[in-house]
Amino acid sequence: MLFNSIEFLIFFPSVCLLYYLIPHRFRCVFLLLCSYFFYMCWNPKYALLLLTSTVITYVTGLLMDSADRIEEEAGRTRRKKLYVALAFVSNLGILFFFKYYTFAADTIVRLLQTVGIQARIPAFDVVLPVGISFYTFKVLSYTMDVYRKDICAEKNFLKYALYVSFFPQIAAGPIERSKNLLTQMNEKHKFEFEKVRSGLLLMLYGYFQKVVLSEYLAIAVNSVYDSYKDRTGFQLLLATILFAFQIYCDFDSYSNIAIGAAQVMGFRTMENFNTPYFAESVADFWRRWHISLSGWFRDYLYIPLGGNRKGEFRRQLNLMIVFFVSGLWHGASWHFVIWGCINGAWQIIGRWLKPAKKKIKKLFCVDETVFSHKLLRMLITFGLVDFSWIFFRADFRQGIAIIKKIIGVGSGWLTWGGNLKAMGLTYDTLLVLIVSMVILFAADLCRYKEICLRDMICRQGLWLRWLIYLFGIFGILIFGVYGPGYDASAFIYFQF
Amino acid sequence: MQKKIQRIGGVLLFCILAFAVFGVVNDILRLKVGQETDMVHSFYDIEENTLDVLCIGSSHSYHSIQPNLLWGEYGIPSYVMSSPSQPVACSYYLLKEMLQYQNPKVVLLETFSFREENQYNTEGYLRSAIDGIRIGKTKTELLEDFFPEYTWKQKLSYYIPFLVYHDRWSEIKSYDFNRVAWMKGGVLSFKVVPQIEPDFPQKPLKLPKNTRKYLKKIIDLCEENGIQLVLYAAPMANNQTARKALRINLSVEKYAAKRGIPFFFYQKTKELGIDYETDFYDDQHLNTYGTDKLMKHMAGWLAENCGLTDHRQEEKYKSWDEDYERYKARREKMLPEKSGD
After folding, report:
1. Rounded CA gap, B259 and A49, in Å?
2. A7–B14: do the CB atoms touch at under 8 Å?
3. Considering only CB atoms, which chain B residues are within 8 Å of A485?
4. Residue A329 lies in a domain
5. Which end of chain B is more exposed for a tag (fewer CB within 10 A), N or C?
6. A404-416 pLDDT, tens per residue?
7. What domains are there in chain B, each with its CATH number?
């Protein structure tokens, strides 16, 4: 059940209505059933995997809790490490089998072929369970938090199962920390009009990002990338820039709908994006992009590896390991790994160039506080990040071919109409796209300036508020890409 | 408590407002069959149980029947609920829908689409015919009949056509705001495209299975409701589709004779005096000059043989006179010699 499907538009209001109508003591079970129903709409069998991960980490959590009562420190640590290992091996094992087995087998066969050995590894035709990467990381974060005693193990299985399967987050995050969400399972959520309205507004904005912006951008990007050989460098450059916004709108829209939906039911969830294209460095970008995943890698991989505490070389190595794994997390393919490594490399190169940049700034008396300097940094960061997106969207060979064509950009300039047609757009759709991009920019600028647009709208007089709501609803209904003939395209991040 | 009531009231009011806006937006964006004529949708504007003659069929029927002319000359209230390439299966369901609102004495069924072997030709043509039908028993029955394998989600866009037509925003025309319901499904066109008369075929073509099935249903429906069914074939120009339709009409002639259903095979009888140089709108359809000739014959026959009375002096048909005046004014305006074309 996708957020932009008619089923969800029936499911969600029904769930909310019943949620607030039923007594508090039944709400957890009710939401748990709804969450499993939501998940099983994709493939009922895979709910068993979700349940398995939940049971394993629930039990290991309890075991770690009981191990904490062992007085002897060495024995206690040994036991806890054993339980953590059990949780990690079993969950990562499931993830590996369903997501990486084919990729790993294929890589091994190829490697062996290069040294002249013909090998055959049995193949399994398995469909990737929706959201497996997200909920696996969620349960592992819980395991680590219990291990580190950041939280106590949850005794109530139903509450823990709801934390793992919470339907707004199950398919594509945010990868919520147990510290935040699990504790809210005990709260009594009253219907609060302002919160519900604010949540709905966020969902509306999310739908606008997905159904209008992301889908129009997808038309342009897919038209060019799907036949990149026949496209000019200029068209590929445009499509690459647009892809940066497509993937942002696509993923941010999912997060906004998820956060908004949780808020309507009274849950506070973490933000997942914070104006990433206003970032002034690649490192800054990763503090703003997919925050829940970046935070996960920071807390459960980068810091345990030693973080920046073990010298510059280890710091850089740790960074590359994190981005290598991050790439792999995004997809079982080498081009995702390359994408991750490029992002890691940008940050390392950035550190190398720091002294030189300092000298240049001193030489030219650059004022770092002025707008022009910030803008230049933002543009350079966008360029670097966008370059890496090429390998996210296309595989390695295609990516190289596209870059070669883009470098020869001058040779491919075409007429305005010709480029528009090649990108699958018309003057009308281009106008919608431009207006939508302006709205996106304005909304992000407000967020960047720490102005809460939703609060601002809610403070306005009734006529203006309603006018904004109506514009939002009918803007999506009229200009959105949906309906028969349109394959309700999954959110890009579903494949992870 | 007062605040709660205020909020509930506010939410309800907003929902009503949103639905009202949706109604307006939907009305602008929905498909208008026959453009400004908006023939399927405008049918619901007609006062209930006021029509004596209903016409169904493909584009050949709205290019050959002019309800305002039938009113102006004979005082017979009629309506054309046709759509492009409307196959008999769709005609059957449209008739069924119309009979929920009207109690006509005569149903005219044009036979051009009798050659269609399927329940519908393309999705576009199907939607032209049925999207305008109100949500209800007929639409549900039709969708179950046409798409037994479809899920509720696949059928949804037939109940809420907005799902399909929301992206008409880039092709909005003035007729999307100003439809002319007073045309009662008829069209006016003085465009002349000279044609060649097709050779009359000798060898009949068998009526397709679906045509037989739904024609039988139409016959039964008319019998159940005491309605006189009249079949007719509007004259056609010389093209491959027309030649096939003519051969089918030879079978229709036999079929109709066997069941005692009147059938006007104008191409065969040549009683209209159609001039192929002046009476065609394109290589398929009659223009208004051709329509006038067909109407002259058909209206006369209906008035004489179907016991239809002249309603022109009746109070409840007052608006029909006004519509006829509008029709005449537009016709005058459109006449080539007046407009200087």
Report:
1. 66
2. no
3. 164
4. yes
5. N
6. 988 876 555 555 6
7. 31-339 (3.40.50.1110)
